[in-house]
Amino acid sequence: MIAIVLAAGLGKRLQPYSRAVSKPAMPVAGVPIILRVIEQCRDAGAAGRLIVIANAPEHDVVPLVEAHAQRHGYDVAFGYQRERRGSAHALRHVPDRDRLDQHVLIAACDNLFESAELRSLVAQHRQRGADGTMAVLRVAPEAMRAHSNVVVEGERVVRVIEKPAPGDVASPFAGPLLYAFSQKILTYLDDVPESPRGEFEFQDAIQAFIRDGARVEWFELSRRTTLTTPDDLLKLNEQFFGAMPGGTRRLGDATIIEPAVIDPDVEIGAGSTVGPNAHLMRGCRVGRGSTVRHALLFPGAVVPDHATVEHTLVPPAM
């Protein structure tokens, strides 16, 4: 199985922080979120080959993923979606998609799931021999407007409604961007029509696939953790830092309370305390006698002397 990770977004809703670090490269307890997604996909059974749809060759995720692939011994290829025009449009940029000979696991770089559930989804897809398996989550009808509505009968998906109006919601299931499919689904991308919003949605390819007789099944997830806003980033870091060991160490004349991540080229003034649950990114400067905890400092951020920074993000120096 080949993993395809969609990572072309730059993170407009994460500005000003995404001016220095793109959304896919946003750190979660020191690890870019795209690498956490890749590790989940590899753990679920897509371990040998990876395709990443990035924004451009100069996108900051490209060297991150290349280095990760080299360290962990898997093959990676990149496609580039410079203009964001929907998930089907992104998948049209999969390199050599007409030559793929394996089923694909498709995920977004900003969604994290329970690893055991992702493994179970892939196992179900393989064991039942389905043409596709869609992840679904239960969502309140009033919240469905921001999702695709997945309509099921028994084990099968029979219809997918993209961002339905409240009166058009036909099931309690929303479809997060997580799918296992036969590679044949990629042959449907070029026939996806442009939506009224000017986008090309993968859900339309799925609907055409079902209409042609494909057996598409569903797998219910208990939860999803997504990165959309600065508050999401803080919560994700609290969650993942919270699973890491504690402790105290000295760094020069400063005290570091673990867990904490300190990148290269960071200056911490004498008498300062960093941590727990803090990440100081490259080029940060923390003044003398300051405290930084439960916080992320973006590249070049400056904390003055004798300041306390907590439960916040400090934007990059511009």
Count of spatially separate domains:
2
Largest sheet entry: 8 strands, mixed
CATH hierarchy class name of the largest domain: Alpha Beta
Please state the structural category: alpha/beta
How large is the radius of gyration? Answer: 21 Å
The total count of helices amounts to 6
For the terminal residues, how far apart are their CA atoms? 42 Å
Please state the average pLDDT score: 94
Q: Would you mind describing this structure in some detail?
A:
The structure is a single chain. β2 and β3 form a beta hairpin. The protein folds into 2 domains: 2-226, Spore Coat Polysaccharide Biosynthesis Protein SpsA, Chain A (Alpha-Beta Complex); 244-314, UDP N-Acetylglucosamine Acyltransferase, domain 1. The chain is an alpha/beta fold. The chain is built from 6 helices and 24 strands. The model has no long low-confidence stretch (mean pLDDT 94). Helices cover 20% and strands 31% of the residues. The strands form 6 sheets. Strands 1, 4, 5, 6, 8, 11, 12 and 13 form an 8-stranded mixed sheet that branches.
SSE map:
Elements: E1 2-6, E2 27-28, E3 31-32, H1 33-44, E4 49-54, H2 61-72, E5 75-80, H3 87-91, E6 104-108, E7 111-112, H4 115-128, E8 132-138, E9 148-153, E10 156-162, E11 173-174, E12 178-181, H5 202-211, E13 216-220, E14 225-226, H6 230-241, E15 247-251, E16 254-258, E17 260-262, E18 267-268, E19 273-274, E20 278-280, E21 285-286, E22 291-297, E23 302-303, E24 308-314
Helix pairs in contact: 1-4
